[in-house]
Amino acid sequence: xxxxxxxxxxxxxxxxxxxxxxxxxxxxxxxxxxxxxxxxxxxxxxxxxxxxxxxxxxxxxxxxxxxxxxxxxxxxxxxxxxxxxxxxxxxxxxxxxxxxxxxxxxxxxx
Length: 110
Prior knowledge:
By secondary structure, this protein is α+β, with helices and mostly antiparallel strands.
Protein backbone atom coordinates (compact mmCIF):
# COMPACT_ATOMS: atom_id res chain seq x y z
CA UNK A 1 0.00 0.00 0.00
CA UNK A 2 1.48 3.33 -0.99
CA UNK A 3 1.61 6.31 1.35
CA UNK A 4 -1.40 8.59 1.03
CA UNK A 5 -3.43 11.05 3.06
CA UNK A 6 -5.60 8.68 5.09
CA UNK A 7 -8.13 11.43 5.75
CA UNK A 8 -9.26 11.20 2.12
CA UNK A 9 -11.76 8.40 1.50
CA UNK A 10 -11.55 6.25 -1.60
CA UNK A 11 -14.32 6.59 -4.16
CA UNK A 12 -16.27 3.34 -4.45
CA UNK A 13 -17.51 2.60 -7.96
CA UNK A 14 -19.84 -0.27 -8.84
CA UNK A 15 -19.86 -1.62 -12.36
CA UNK A 16 -23.31 -2.12 -13.87
CA UNK A 17 -23.08 -5.85 -13.22
CA UNK A 18 -22.14 -5.31 -9.56
CA UNK A 19 -24.84 -2.68 -9.11
CA UNK A 20 -27.60 -4.95 -10.45
CA UNK A 21 -26.37 -7.94 -8.45
CA UNK A 22 -26.30 -5.82 -5.29
CA UNK A 23 -29.77 -4.40 -6.01
CA UNK A 24 -31.12 -7.94 -6.50
CA UNK A 25 -30.23 -9.12 -2.99
CA UNK A 26 -33.63 -10.35 -1.80
CA UNK A 27 -33.37 -9.76 1.96
CA UNK A 28 -33.50 -6.17 3.23
CA UNK A 29 -31.28 -7.06 6.20
CA UNK A 30 -28.66 -8.70 3.97
CA UNK A 31 -28.87 -5.83 1.47
CA UNK A 32 -28.19 -3.34 4.29
CA UNK A 33 -25.33 -5.43 5.68
CA UNK A 34 -23.66 -5.76 2.26
CA UNK A 35 -24.14 -2.00 1.78
CA UNK A 36 -22.33 -1.30 5.05
CA UNK A 37 -19.47 -3.58 3.96
CA UNK A 38 -19.24 -1.67 0.67
CA UNK A 39 -19.14 1.62 2.60
CA UNK A 40 -16.25 0.29 4.70
CA UNK A 41 -14.15 0.09 1.54
CA UNK A 42 -14.17 3.91 1.33
CA UNK A 43 -11.98 4.10 4.44
CA UNK A 44 -10.34 0.67 4.34
CA UNK A 45 -9.87 -0.43 0.72
CA UNK A 46 -7.57 -3.28 1.75
CA UNK A 47 -10.10 -4.73 4.20
CA UNK A 48 -10.76 -7.66 1.87
CA UNK A 49 -8.15 -10.28 1.18
CA UNK A 50 -6.35 -10.99 -2.06
CA UNK A 51 -8.53 -13.30 -4.10
CA UNK A 52 -6.66 -16.54 -4.72
CA UNK A 53 -9.16 -19.22 -5.76
CA UNK A 54 -8.53 -22.94 -5.57
CA UNK A 55 -9.60 -23.51 -9.19
CA UNK A 56 -8.20 -21.72 -12.23
CA UNK A 57 -11.73 -21.48 -13.71
CA UNK A 58 -12.70 -19.28 -10.75
CA UNK A 59 -9.90 -16.75 -11.39
CA UNK A 60 -10.79 -13.46 -13.11
CA UNK A 61 -8.46 -12.20 -15.86
CA UNK A 62 -7.03 -9.54 -13.49
CA UNK A 63 -5.89 -9.29 -9.86
CA UNK A 64 -8.57 -8.48 -7.35
CA UNK A 65 -9.59 -8.61 -3.73
CA UNK A 66 -12.67 -10.07 -2.07
CA UNK A 67 -14.56 -9.03 1.04
CA UNK A 68 -17.04 -11.59 2.34
CA UNK A 69 -20.28 -10.35 3.86
CA UNK A 70 -22.79 -12.97 4.95
CA UNK A 71 -22.98 -15.38 1.99
CA UNK A 72 -21.94 -12.74 -0.56
CA UNK A 73 -18.50 -12.00 -1.91
CA UNK A 74 -17.71 -8.43 -2.92
CA UNK A 75 -15.02 -8.65 -5.63
CA UNK A 76 -13.09 -5.48 -6.30
CA UNK A 77 -9.85 -3.85 -7.40
CA UNK A 78 -8.03 -0.94 -5.78
CA UNK A 79 -6.46 1.95 -7.69
CA UNK A 80 -4.34 3.86 -5.19
CA UNK A 81 -3.35 6.58 -7.65
CA UNK A 82 -6.99 7.45 -8.31
CA UNK A 83 -8.06 6.70 -4.71
CA UNK A 84 -10.76 4.45 -6.14
CA UNK A 85 -12.21 1.04 -5.40
CA UNK A 86 -14.03 -0.60 -8.31
CA UNK A 87 -16.47 -3.32 -7.37
CA UNK A 88 -17.06 -5.56 -10.35
CA UNK A 89 -19.04 -8.38 -8.76
CA UNK A 90 -21.32 -9.00 -5.79
CA UNK A 91 -21.72 -12.77 -5.87
CA UNK A 92 -23.86 -15.16 -3.90
CA UNK A 93 -21.23 -17.66 -2.76
CA UNK A 94 -23.75 -20.51 -2.80
CA UNK A 95 -23.83 -20.47 -6.61
CA UNK A 96 -21.57 -22.46 -8.94
CA UNK A 97 -18.09 -20.94 -8.45
CA UNK A 98 -16.90 -22.00 -11.89
CA UNK A 99 -19.29 -19.52 -13.52
CA UNK A 100 -18.18 -16.68 -11.25
CA UNK A 101 -16.36 -14.47 -13.79
CA UNK A 102 -17.80 -15.73 -17.06
CA UNK A 103 -18.80 -12.19 -18.09
CA UNK A 104 -15.25 -10.87 -17.54
CA UNK A 105 -13.39 -12.69 -20.27
CA UNK A 106 -12.02 -9.64 -22.08
CA UNK A 107 -8.94 -9.54 -19.86
CA UNK A 108 -9.34 -5.85 -19.12
CA UNK A 109 -8.85 -4.70 -15.56
CA UNK A 110 -11.36 -2.34 -14.00
